[in-house]
Amino acid sequence: GFFCRNVETLNVHGLGLAMGERTNITSHGSLAYAVLSSPNYEEGFRVFQRYLKLRINFLRLTLIFTEENIQFKFDLTENSTPYITRFYLECAISGTNAFVSQYLKGKKFNAKCKFNYCEPEYSEAYPKYLGSDVSFDCSECSFTISRSHFDERDGFKNQTIFSISKQQCETELEQFEKAQDIVSKIRTVLYES
Questions:
Q1: In this structure, are residues 60 and 75 in contact, taking their beta carbons and an 8 Å threshold?
Q2: In what helix (H) or strand (E) does residue 115 lie, and over which residues does it extend?
């Protein structure tokens, strides 16, 4: 609430793009260790999808793997104003771009970025953060990248770190779900009063 009101009051164009770009993969704690130590990129991205809500609970990530591409599709889990919606989705796509760049250790890549909102007045800033393949007024908000950028051999041979990190994420997920259940019960009681 407080953060969103202040972000909207500031009305800084492209703030979500800038924040997403500056997000370092290691800021996600045990989730980052699990992703980076995964046996291969596909498993790493699946771990990211499963546990992302531990770090960012206002987004739902769906991964779609095809023979040629990997698509990261984002949906908001709660309603918001158009400005905050745009801010969150800019963060998600720009952050995914930064995440993939860090995962690929700086290798160059092209991605297709789609946004499900109208083209903003500052749309010329988007290619600076995301490359040239950006479109608006789409039916989804997604980041799609070719599998050709990834190498199956990029994974770690020693899976101890992966196992420990994934178990830590699972423990955190159980705690998160218990807390969400309590919050849900409190909301029910408050709304009934």
A1: yes
A2: none
